[in-house]
Amino acid sequence: MKSKNILIRDANLRDIPAIMELIHLKAKFDSCPESVEATPQKLEIDLFGEKPLAFVVLAEVDGDSIGLATYHFIYSTFLAKPGIWLDDLYVKAEYRSHRVGQSLMLHLHQIGKEKGCGRIDWTVAVSNEGGIKFYERIGAKIINQVKLCSLDVQALDLSLKQNNVGEYGE
Fold this sequence. Notes:
By secondary structure, the protein is α+β, with helices and mostly antiparallel strands. The chain has helices at residues 16-29, 40-48, 100-115, 129-137, 153-162, and strands spanning 6-10, 55-61, 64-76, 81-91, 120-121. The protein has a 5-stranded mixed beta sheet, sandwiched between helices. The longest helix is centred in the middle third of the chain and has 16 residues, at 100-115. The mean pLDDT is 93.
């Protein structure tokens, strides 16, 4: 790594090109580069509009964006507290094992403390052995008793149509 000065900061509108680059790199890392539908215009609205849907924290070294964490707030009925859902954590390959991921997680931890959050939740691919080891090293519990469920709008629409269910269960 060129420098040890890692800066962690909240992203702003001017960071959209760097965010797009990191999203594409993460999709490539996850072996699904074709799945990226994000556009700069959509990110501008969703991340920096009047009512942001999610937030981005960037890691920088010497002014270059080298990693990101994207997150939004959730609520735990069990804890009766808000939480953070970490959607993406990505660090460029040449900067891994230099505490960049740890710095991003510590920043999210601080945000969580300020907002009164009870925990940070996320998923990790079972094939991402390096990521799993990293998360365990920072104290995360890997929970194997649950399965990730994902229901996209088209699948739900088709299911409702096939089952003759109206828009609100009519």
